Amino acid sequence: MNKPKLVLTPVGALIVNRLTQDEKPLWDSVQKEDLLAIREGQAKGQEALEQKVVTRLKTLNLNSEEGLQQASPEIKSLAKIGIGPEDQIVLYASETPDGILSARIVHDFAEQVWECTSTLEVITGLQVKDAGRFRSVGVLRYVQSIVKLIDNPNNRYGREIILNATAGYKSLVPYTTLVGLLFQVQVQYIFETSSELLSLPPLPLDFDQQFFKQVEPLSASCSTRNEKNCMSDEARLFDTNILVHAYTISDERKHAIALALVERVWAGEEAATTLQNLCELFFVVTRKVAKPIAPAAAESVLRGILLGSQWTVFDRTPGTVFKAIEFVRLSRTHFWDALIAACRLEHGVHTIVAENERDFKKIPGLTIINPFKRVRPV
Fold it and tell me: What does the alpha-carbon distance between residue 114 and residue 315 come to, in Å, rounded to a whole number?
């Protein structure tokens, strides 16, 4: 019995590039909105545009050569791979309006036509305006995501995993191919002017299992070290207000500053936050700011931080609570600020990036960096 498929597919922007004349005015309206609105399908005119395009694509005969050539690379390759109701597709969209819209359209098409399960992930940094960010953030996050799915035992042993390298940025093809070869997962590809599905064979590599057994005690020791010993002296902890400004725009200047700081973390700079900060972040960006974002979008942000390797997320212990109470008693700090500070100090982090200087300054052992503070001329 054949296993159900798990197909991991980057998505390009050809669907948007091929919009008809009556669809383009709707696209002009959609692309003026922010990426989160497009990701959630909330941009003005987006629902009508997506319905129009999906309806048009559903008229293609994907069993014919003509129909395949008229389809987008994603749909053409998925049709040739052969998607059914038991299969799952993961679509990777670039961090661009046309990439996200194209992925949403492929997602809707796949679920309606093949009745499969389809999920969409927007890859931070996957864009072409900033080559450095593409290399250090976009490619890294893309590879991390596909490797995580490949390593999942439910997928590894329960599904036929396929890396579809047909669509998306051409510069991703080598990385997709290399991951497939190293993890012995099949990579499939269709050339632009062809409808022939090509499969790349796994690389004939093996690993020295005996060597890994010899270093296993050292590896276990490293992985179970206390978190506070794993954080460097330069590590900084981000307070809630920094994350709020990074992911919402209530103040253009503060948004630009906060977003730059957060992007440096995604690019590899060491940083931490607490579970309490993330809970506050979700509440504030969905309820308290002038322009709240959708809960699903906020969930995506939290999921990226909690599951990403770039961030260290600390949680509280009973000892943390008692330390916070001590701070409140000695310095009259607000309890929730004291709890965050206690959690940070407990894990060896002494620098906090925050807008709220007044309360944190009362707590000994903390260095506060306010990135929004203007330097007064001498």
Answer: 43
265 in Cβ contact with 311 (< 8 Å): yes
Q: What is the C-alpha separation between 50 and 37, in angstroms, rounded?
A: 14
**Secondary structure in 3-state letters for 206-253:** CCCHHHHHHHHHHHHHHHCCCHHHHCCCCCEEECHHHHHHHHCCCCHH
Question: What does the pLDDT look like over 204-258, one tens digit per residue?
Answer: 655 565 655 665 565 555 444 444 334 554 578 999 999 999 999 888 899 999 9
Q: How far apart are CA 164 and CA 194, in angstroms?
A: 15
Beta partners for residue 236, in sequence order: 271, 351
CA atoms within 13 A on the CB side of 190: 22
Q: Residue 285 in contact with residue 278, Cβ under 8 Å? A: no
Round the CA-based radius of gyration of the chain to a whole number and report it. 24
Q: What is the pLDDT of residues 253-264, one digit of tens each?
A: 999 999 999 988
